[in-house]
Amino acid sequence: MFPGSLGQSLAGRALRSGLWSLETVDIRDFARDKHRSVDDTPSGGGAGMVMRPDVVDAALASVEDRSGPVLYLSPRGRLLDQDFVRGLAGEPGVTLLCGRYEGVDQRVLEARNVVEVSVGDYVLSGGEPAALVLMDAVVRLLPGVMGNDDSGLEESFEQGLLEYPLYTRPSDWQGREVPEVLTSGHHDNIRLWRLAQAEEITEARRPDLWARYLKRRNEVPGKGR
Ligand code: SAM
């Protein structure tokens, strides 16, 4: 599963040139029986299987000299957002624990101070695609990974707003024209138009972000227009 799509494109090039690195650990290598089992039935009964604390702990111990937080991808975790992603991009490294079956025994999560992180309110069959999402979001923020380091600053969430609509050539496509202001060359007007569009879209689509943006704008003198 790894590096999966992260072996391609900008992230893949950055991986090959050493801007970031990836070490994968197969939890089965830490199993204690000849069947290499990592799971057992849930205490208290019920469906599915649970990943054993001793096996997961041994797998985590094998990378414990690595710096940075240990995160468990889990639908119960705090929602992954751009602020959290930015924080992770500033860490020297991150250890990601991918669950399978019903999940991981609670005791090893507590013993190792594992932080649970969710990629959304839906259930995946394993933590690996969630880990790829998190890694993609973090890797693109690492210095030197994106072609133009400024391009990230304008994107959705970076200013607390969703992104304004994007256009390129041709200026007339099937009778639909690029908004005139964008071809005016007037940078202040373009900036104000984009901000107004971003605000309109955010207010209409994401009342939660909009409320937070308004609060922040009122707190920071000179913020917004
Ligand atoms: N029994 C769990 C529950 O009800 O919350 C779901 C377990 S899920 C089938 C198996 C694994 O997929 C989880 O241990 C977790 O690692 C991963 N996973 C599933 N959904 C996820 C999400 N929304 N975010 C992050 N990881 C997720």
Automatic annotation (TrEMBL):
Gene3D superfamilies: 3.40.1280.10, tRNA(m1g37)methyltransferase, domain 2. Pfam families: tRNA_m1G_MT (PF01746). GO terms for molecular function: tRNA (guanine(37)-N1)-methyltransferase activity. One of its GO terms (biological process) is tRNA N1-guanine methylation. It is found in: Cytoplasm. S-adenosyl-L-methionine binds at G99, V119, G120, D121, Y122, V123, L124. CDD domains: TrmD-like. Keywords: Cytoplasm, Methyltransferase, S-adenosyl-L-methionine, Transferase, tRNA processing. Residues 3-211 form the tRNA methyltransferase TRMD/TRM10-type domain. It catalyses: guanosine(37) in tRNA + S-adenosyl-L-methionine = N(1)-methylguanosine(37) in tRNA + S-adenosyl-L-homocysteine + H(+). Its EC number is 2.1.1.228. GO terms for cellular component: cytosol. Belongs to the RNA methyltransferase TrmD family. Homodimer. NCBIfam families: PRK00026.1, trmD. PANTHER family: TRNA (GUANINE-N(1)-)-METHYLTRANSFERASE. Specifically methylates guanosine-37 in various tRNAs. This is tRNA (guanine-N(1)-)-methyltransferase. It comes from Denitrobaculum tricleocarpae. The gene is trmD.
